[in-house]
Specification:
Strands 2, 4, 5, 6, 9, 10 and 11 form a seven-stranded mixed β-sheet that branches. The protein has a four-stranded antiparallel β-sheet with strand order 1-3-8-7, with no helix packed on it. The chain is 0% helix and 46% strand. With 123 residues, it is an all-beta fold. The protein contains no helices and eleven strands. Strand 7 and strand 8 form a beta hairpin.
Length: 123
């Protein structure tokens, strides 16, 4: 059974950093592109970042470019999201997702999704 388990969320002040992790036991990890999405209170879930199966290509939504970095360790079946210069608008539940096809920003096109980890940025 495929599970995606996020960790690393928490409360941080504006300008701070967090590193999210997503472990994927049971997944043939190297076959899947991995992504991060987030959902703020009262808003729809939105794409944040994604990384190709090999890790050679990454994608970021405009609002996080230069601040967030996605990476993966295929030997550990884990994808990471390093978040720097956090701002209150980054607050939300962060979800990781896996997809065997090409990268897409549409959450419904991702076959596997975790339960999320809460990130709260105080002003």
């Amino acid at each position: 059974q495929v599970q995606l388990v996020e960790s690393g969320g928490g409360l941080v002040q504006t300008g701070g950093s967090l590193r999210l992790s997503c472990a994927a036991p049971g997944l043939t990890f190297g076959w899947y592109g991995m992504g991060w999405f987030r959902q703020a209170p009262g808003k729809e879930r939105e794409f944040v970042a994604a990384i190709s199966r090999s890790g050679g290509t990454t994608y970021n939504t405009d609002s996080v470019k230069g601040r967030f970095t996605i990476s993966r360790d295929n030997a550990k079946n884990t994808v990471y999201l390093q978040m720097n210069s956090l701002a209150p608008e980054d607050t939300g539940v962060y979800y990781c997702a896996a997809r065997s096809g090409g990268i897409t920003t549409m959450i419904n096109d991702w076959a596997y999704r975790g339960r999320g980890t809460q990130v709260t940025v105080s002003s």
